[in-house]
UniProtKB/TrEMBL annotation:
GO terms for biological process: defense response to virus; maintenance of CRISPR repeat elements. Belongs to the CRISPR-associated endonuclease Cas1 family. CRISPR (clustered regularly interspaced short palindromic repeat), is an adaptive immune system that provides protection against mobile genetic elements (viruses, transposable elements and conjugative plasmids). CRISPR clusters contain spacers, sequences complementary to antecedent mobile elements, and target invading nucleic acids. CRISPR clusters are transcribed and processed into CRISPR RNA (crRNA). Acts as a dsDNA endonuclease. Involved in the integration of spacer DNA into the CRISPR cassette. Keywords: Antiviral defense, DNA-binding, Endonuclease, Hydrolase, Magnesium, Manganese, Metal-binding, Nuclease. This is CRISPR-associated endonuclease Cas1. It holds the Pfam family Cas_Cas1. Mn(2+) binds at E166, H234, E249. Homodimer, forms a heterotetramer with a Cas2 homodimer. It comes from Bacillus aquiflavi. Gene3D superfamilies: CRISPR-associated endonuclease Cas1, C-terminal domain (1.20.120.920), CRISPR-associated endonuclease Cas1, N-terminal domain (3.100.10.20). Its cofactor is Mg(2+); Mn(2+).
Length: 343
């Protein structure tokens, strides 16, 4: 159980939620795990729920406290809310900003600042931790260049220019990515990003990790009442969770890339976990996907200190924290959306 930004997160499996007076009570096999006053909560998010009492749902509906149910893996299942006036205002603000490219750029640039900043510190940590394994001079030069791009992005109010700066940063970061692969270099290498289809083992894993992260982010956004399909940087496209792709930009490197690198460098995966199709696509075996997902779920349980909130939370709650912060910004509770800045 974790309280964050007036939201109660229940991450233990098989927990039943009930009401006692003005309090939420958490039960597991009739044993009371916790009790918390409801008067200062805005929402409840439950992972892998067993159920919630009608009395609790009725109480929350009357007081505009939303209850969101997710699977243990973070997939969005359902959301119980009262009168939709709060969500209507929030989503109308989201839609209005999305229609205005200049206003969209003011939010989108913070997603990109977070992404470039985090990639810069991935590079810096490599020079600190593996000075004899990487080209330190090249890494330092790239880190310096990324700092100059951040300054340009900070004042950018044009989406096309913003995408250009993001592209330049990505090219320079990707040029170093192969050096970050420290083990099994004959079987795992990175020359360029290939998506449809992935043409090597690293790209196959990166695509899988980005898909998982996008799903986690979409569920988190839906949980706070935002529309995951209407973005600011990524424009509308049928079936694409554009806002999820926006917000996950700042987590691509520090969450997904580092995770994939750890699987290779710790030899959790090997060349036998992949096979090549006739069209050249590299596919992960079913057994490899099971190993990948098990490690992904373990990663989500690791604790970090959120750089903006100062609270200790699990990696799996970072998408939810950023979604809450974005919703607060759109409600004018914050002057600016604070990206996730890792160091």
């Amino acid at each position: 159980m974790k309280k964050l930004l007036n939201t109660l997160f229940i991450t233990q499996p098989d927990v039943y939620l009930s009401l006692d007076g003005d309090n939420i009570v958490l039960l597991k096999e009739q044993e009371k795990l916790g009790r918390l006053p409801l008067h200062n909560l805005e929402s409840i998010v439950s992972f892998g729920y067993t159920g919630a009492s009608p009395a609790l749902m009725g109480y929350c509906v009357e007081r505009n406290i939303s209850i969101t149910f997710l699977s243990m893996s973070g997939r969005f299942l359902a959301r119980v809310i009262g009168k939709s006036k709060g969500n209507v205002v929030l989503r109308k603000k989201q839609y209005n900003i999305s229609e205005d490219e200049r206003e969209s750029a003011k939010i989108a640039r913070n997603f990109i600042i977070g992404k470039i900043y985090n990639n810069k510190w991935i590079i810096e940590r490599m020079t600190r931790d593996y000075p004899l394994r990487v080209d330190v001079a090249q890494f330092k030069e790239t880190s310096k260049y990324l700092s100059t791009i951040i300054l340009e992005v900070r004042k950018c109010e044009n989406l096309d220019q913003l995408r250009g700066w993001e592209g330049q940063a990505a090219i320079n970061y990707n040029q170093l990515f192969n050096q970050m692969i420290l083990q099994q270099k004959d079987d795992f290498y990175f020359n360029l990003r290939s998506r449809r289809p992935p043409l090597d083992n690293m790209n196959a894993m990166l695509s899988f990790a980005y898909t998982l992260l996008a799903n986690d982010m979409a569920a988190a956004l839906e949980g706070v009442g935002l529309d995951a399909y209407v973005g600011f940087l990524h424009r509308d496209r049928p079936g694409r969770v554009s806002l999820a792709l926006d917000v996950m930009e700042e987590l691509r490197g520090v969450y997904a890339d580092k995770f994939v690198l750890s699987l290779v460098n710790k030899k959790i995966v090997n060349k036998s976990d992949f096979y090549k199709k006739e069209n050249g696509a590299i596919i992960m075996t079913e057994e490899a996907k099971k190993k990948f997902l098990a490690a992904w779920q373990k990663k989500k349980q690791e604790k970090i200190t959120h750089p903006y909130l100062g609270d200790k939370i699990s990696w799996g709650l970072v998408p939810h924290a950023q979604s809450l912060l974005l919703a607060r910004y759109l409600r004018n509770d914050l002057d600016e959306y604070p990206p996730f800045l890792w160091k």
